Amino acid sequence: MDLRLDDKVALVTGGSKGIGMGIVRCLLAEGARVANVNRSEAEGLALEQEYAAQGKDCLFIQGDLTDVNACRNAVEKALDRFGRIDILINNAGVNDGVGLDAGPDAFLTSLQRNLIHYYAMAHYALEALKTSRGCIVNIGSKVCVTGQGGTSGYAAAKGAINGLTREWAVDLAPWGIRVNTVLPAETWTPLYERCLAEMDDPEQARADIERLIPLEHRFTTIEELADTVVFLASDRSSHTTGQILFVDGGYTHLDRKCTASGAVSEFGAAGES
Ligand code: NAP
Questions:
Q1: How far is CA 241 from CA 26, 60, 178, in A?
Q2: Residue of the nearest CA to atom 48 in ligand 1?
């Protein structure tokens, strides 16, 4: 399927690693031009050069998104370079473990890491998106519907992103701007690897999680996540808006009694064989 992204410009937050990098690579492969906002200049410029060597156009914009001025700057730089923005992908975030014990200041800081820049990016990109009849895809997390414990800030931010998806879809429908959110659950990324590395037995921890993922008992890949995001960002999803879509191998919703690896299954097709 041709996603018809050849003339499109996408602005992606956190595109130097993990899911964001997967999204950038997929957008470039589909012919879009991309601006990637991230913290590390060395990492971002190296990627910009790597893509340029392949004939692909990915502008790196340095910035820490917890500063709203960096958000405004990112939109301005993308517009200076490309003259338009068709797609905004709000992706950067971190499960920073700010729990009830951490206090209001830490909670606010967590919201700055995970929520405020989603709003700020949409705010500063709004006029450009109205002009292009563009779209927004947010990356959320299953944590906002399942809870996790010890991570109030992240859970609140991701819950708010679900709310804003519906709110913005209504708000921006008159301009033909679509807004959707993709929720990962267990996607193998540097962030995830870092989390498991802090555990006593990272290999066992990984196996324990994989056992609970119904579809093929494995993590979602960044490519699987990115393919869905880029499809939603393309005109091939031209009548899809306000949707909250889980790309998680069934992890969030399916009945573990029936799907956990090793569970005695007397349900469904497996139980019949
Ligand atoms: P990752 O591997 O850590 O990559 C995130 C990227 O975003 C990094 O390049 C990071 O830069 C950048 N970034 C983060 N905060 C930033 C900031 N304030 N300013 C500029 N750049 C920033 O994380 P990931 O696993 O791909 O996660 C991406 C999104 O998916 C997040 O919103 C996360 O909540 C969501 N998610 C992931 C999973 C999962 O299983 N991986 C599950 C649920 C939700 P640095 O290298 O400088 O940190």
A1: 21, 29, 5
A2: 39
How do residues 45-95 score in pLDDT, each as one tens digit? 999 999 999 999 999 999 999 999 999 999 999 999 999 999 999 999 999
139 lines ligand 1 (CB under 6 A): yes
Does residue 269 or residue 202 have the better pLDDT? 202
The domain locations on the chain are 9-187+221-249
For the CA of 222, the nearest atom of ligand 1 = 26
Q: Which atom of ligand 1 is nearest to the CA of 66?
A: 18
Q: What is the pLDDT of residue 191?
A: 84
Alpha-carbon gap, residue 125 to 74, rounded angstroms: 9
- Could you tell me if 19 and 181 are in contact, meaning their C-beta atoms sit under 8 angstroms apart? no
pLDDT at 186 over 90: yes
Q: Whole-model pTM?
A: 0.96
The CATH class, in words, for 9-187+221-249 is alpha beta
Active site residue 154: yes
Ligand 1 proximity of 224 Cβ (cutoff 6 Å): no
Largest CA distance in the chain: 61
